[in-house]
Write a structure and sequence with these properties.
The chain is α/β, with parallel strands linked by helices. It folds into 3 domains: about 10-95, MurE/MurF, N-terminal domain (Udp-n-acetylmuramoylalanyl-d-glutamate--2,6- Diaminopimelate Ligase, Chain: A, domain 1, 3-Layer(aba) Sandwich), CATH 3.40.1390.10; about 105-315, UDP N-Acetylglucosamine Acyltransferase, domain 1; about 320-345. Helices cover about 15% and strands about 30% of the residues. It has 4 helices and 40 strands. A 12-stranded mixed beta sheet has the order 8-11-14-17-20-25-28-31-34-37-39-40, with helices on one face. The longest helix is centred in the last third of the chain and has 20 residues, at about 330-345. It is flat, with a radius of gyration of 26 Å. The N and C termini lie far apart (about 80 Å).
């Protein structure tokens, strides 16, 4: 099934003018949709930002392609820009404009406490439940089955997909996107040992999410044990991420799928955590720190440092260790041969 597209479409020249690119070839070619370079057709645009896809420039049937200035191509019309990936994202926005998922107003099947405050310009879909003292800002869309706990707050123009739970007293900024199944403000994992077993430590904090944050499906963000768990402005969190209680995440961080961040760990601005990375609690990652996939981080990381492996080491050191380990079977064979020769010599 092909994705829906702009019925009117744009000429390539029009797209270039809107995104600040330059046209090579026929600027009047009509573009109505976007597709991967391998499958794009005559009225679709594609892009190449990764060198391994350059080979498809010889065979693609796309109407046009977005390329960096230095990439050669003379088969099809080109939109040139130094950042093809970013420009392609802008073009997709033009070809596939946002559509409302729920009408402004409150669906009759929603449950709204009389003491809740829902802005008249908000949209609350069926089976949503908004508790006492909760606030929903202007332009928000709560698609369906969304739960807002007591005194929870949503800023303006948030998009809250089906099945999201925002528990009591949690605060969400403006233009936040929460995908299906996200839970904000579930209890942190805190227990004290006693002769009678494990005593639950009541979690009485909350969660604060800054403006322009996006959180992927089935990610959970625990409330603080006493104070807040914080996610800074512009941070993007993938699906299936666990963020523990009292974690503090800075601005414009990228946290990829299946990452786990233990309680009270602090991330600076611009931190990147690749898939399945795990962080122990009570450590700090400085601004711009990067952690590779499946890495285990047990110590604080200085600003700008790239780490990889389990336990996580500086990325270059970790790669050298991996390279040495790959040679280990051959080295063991050589050692056995040497031991055998030495043994034979001693027997003589």
């Amino acid at each position: 099934m092909k994705p829906s597209s702009s019925s009117q479409g744009f000429t390539l020249a029009d797209l270039a003018a809107r995104v600040g690119g330059e046209v090579e070839g026929d600027g009047q070619v009509m573009i109505r949709s976007a597709a991967p370079i391998e499958t794009a057709g005559p009225e679709q645009i594609c892009f190449v930002a990764n060198a391994k896809y350059l080979k498809f420039l010889e065979t693609t049937t796309a109407g046009a392609v977005v390329l960096a200035p230095a990439v050669p191509c003379d088969r099809i019309p080109i939109l040139r820009h130094p950042n093809p990936y970013y420009v392609f994202a802008q073009i997709v926005d033009l070809l596939f404009p946002d559509q409302r998922l729920v009408a402004v107003g409150i669906d009759p099947a929603a449950v709204i406490d009389p003491e809740a405050i829902v802005d008249p310009l908000a949209a609350v879909g069926p089976f949503c439940h908004i508790n006492r003292g909760a606030v929903v800002g202007a332009g928000c869309q709560l698609v369906s089955g969304v739960y807002l706990g007591e005194r929870a707050q949503l800023g303006s123009n948030c998009l809250i997909y089906p099945g999201v739970k925002i528990m009591k007293e949690c605060r969400v900024g403006d233009r936040v996107i929460l995908h299906p199944g996200v839970v904000i403000g579930s209890d942190g994992f805190g227990f004290a040992e006693s002769p009678q077993g494990l005593k639950k430590i009541k979690q009485v904090g909350w969660v604060e999410i800054g403006d322009d944050v996006e959180i992927g499906s089935n990610t959970t963000v625990d409330r603080g044990a006493l104070g807040p768990t914080r996610i800074g402005r512009g941070t993007k969190v993938d699906n299936l991420v666990q963020i523990g209680h009292n974690v503090e995440i800075g601005q414009h961080c990228i946290i990829v799928s299946q990452v786990g961040i233990s309680g009270s760990t602090k991330l600076g601005n611009g931190v990147i955590l690749a898939g399945q990375a795990g962080l122990v609690g009570h450590i700090e990652l400085g601004d711009g720190a990067r952690v590779g996939a499946q890495s285990g981080v047990a110590k604080s990381i200085p600003p700008g440092r790239s780490m990889f492996g389990s336990p996580a080491r500086e990325a270059m050191a970790s790669m050298r260790i991996d390279a040495a380990l790959s040679r280990l079977p051959e080295l063991l064979k050589r050692v056995r041969k040497i031991e055998k020769k030495l043994g034979d010599g001693s027997a003589d």
